[in-house]
Amino acid sequence: MKTAPSCPRCGRAVHEPDLWSSAWRCDAHGPVTPLQGVREPSVTSLEIVLDEARVPVWLPWPLPNGWVITGFADVGEERTGTLAAAVALSGPAPLGGVGELVIVAEEPGIGLAARIARVDGPDPGEGFDRDPPDAKVRNDGHEIPLWSVDTGPERALYVGEAMAQWLWFVFSPADAGMLMCEIDSVRDLRDARDVGPFPALPFGAPSPFLTEVLKPVG
Description:
Blueprint: E1 2-6, E2 14-15, E3 24-26, E4 30-32, E5 35-39, H1 43-52, E6 58-60, E7 68-77, E8 81-92, E9 98-106, H2 112-117, E10 135-139, E11 142-149, E12 156-162, E13 165-172, E14 186-188, H3 189-195, H4 208-213
Antiparallel strand pairs: 1-5, 2-3, 3-4, 5-7, 6-14, 7-8, 8-9, 9-13, 10-11, 11-12, 12-13
């Protein structure tokens, strides 16, 4: 499933650093940190993401009943480490059928989650947190407030901030967002290596949703 590096905001091919620029460059968005593609749901893929992660790698824990991990995506390169990490999950939607959830932690300005959510990016925009939060999750004894952001009928989106990084919950279809009521806490998988015990993680088939929304362009 691994593909050539691309722009995290639009999926176009990116130009490697050269004698004139030390940055990766997108023809549409200029200097960017490259998306390394979608990785298959496996322990090996998770270890690759964790080894380079400079942002949390979030997972709801405990997982909603029947839900499994279905893929990963990461934005970064050797010099920067991973500056955005996405974990995809799939399972039974509250109103029937299959639901998809992608949880993204990213530094401001990356734009990966906005692309997955199909909103103007790269960040949620000013004023999204003007009203009281619509949901909260806990991590290590701390509450993380989340706000619902309107994305139209195909997605449900909740956004907040944790550890000085954006935290995005992107659900598809939109009614799968009802699952947010069942998610009480999240765990940073970077810590799971050290603080254990952590049960074996359930992996499923690769997520068609993540693969489709992050498909390279051109």
